[in-house]
Amino acid sequence: FSENGDEEMNKPNIVGPEYIAELLGIEVSTVKMDARRSPTSLPPRLAIPGRKALMWIEEDVIDWLNSFRP
Question: Which single residue of 26, 29, 35, 36 has CA 20 to 30 Å from 52?
């Protein structure tokens, strides 16, 4: 067990609205608006108490996208 090795591998990759916009082919402003008006149209957000930043865990985003595959 290395000091950094296993811990680093388990750390989630946090992504923002730019990542979501690029992945879905929409504007960043649309992601921000949908996060407020229609949150179910986006992957589930990472909601940290006291933080207003829009954040997602990349693995959750990919899982959400895969849920729509036939």
Answer: 26
